[in-house]
From TrEMBL:
Belongs to the UMP kinase family. One of its GO terms (biological process) is UDP biosynthetic process. The gene is pyrH_2. SUPFAM superfamilies: Carbamate kinase-like (SSF53633). It is an enzyme of class 2 (transferase). Pathway: Pyrimidine metabolism; CTP biosynthesis via de novo pathway; UDP from UMP (UMPK route): step 1/1. It comes from Candidatus Bilamarchaeum dharawalense. PANTHER family: URIDYLATE KINASE, URIDYLATE KINASE PUMPKIN, CHLOROPLASTIC. This is UMP kinase. Pfam families: AA_kinase (PF00696).
Amino acid sequence: MHIVLSLGGSLVNTENGTDRDYVLRIREIIAKNENKFGIVVGGGFGARKVAKKMREKGKSEFECDEAAIKITWKNAQVVADVFGDMAYPKAIKDFKKARKEACGETGKKVVVMGGTIPGVTTDTDSVLLAEALGSTRLINISNTAGIYDSNPKENPNAKKFDRMTYDQLIDLAVKSDRRTAGTNFVFDLLACKLIARSKIETHFVSGKNLEDVEKAVDGKPHSGTVVS
């Protein structure tokens, strides 16, 4: 069985640089689990920074996306490097290659990807990877401790959901999805529709709460949000 992690780029690529120690903690969690894993890494601070600079230069959103995707590849390579022999050594850029390396006879325990094409977020990439690998569980690891009815950073009274249906998540994403490079939102609309079509149980946990991350990886109850 493969489990797919959508690893928020802001946990790997911060204002202070690459947080290899954090990636090592994720590696320790995965090493203890018997399943195989696919990891899709977001762009984080670097992607937001480069997208902002390019917009200031009048570049198109397509070009901003291309630049942000390159940052995700760099972040993904950092993750692959930290995982060492446990992972395929190169950041993978397409789903067929990921499936080949993950599912072949000599497949590694972990394959790592970044973004793929402009207009598609790493949220969506993670769901597509889950579909490609036949995964029924996806774990979204970000700076937010689950799904809320509004932005908890802006609304201190925001309500967190313990469980949601796919349709509830889609309705919330409709209000949040701006689809521009370097922005972040709960889970983009296309990704929401894809997990619904393939009935992929999706867990949303805070990457700062490594106990919750480990519980989600192990299929145990956690304090985040489960969508099914």
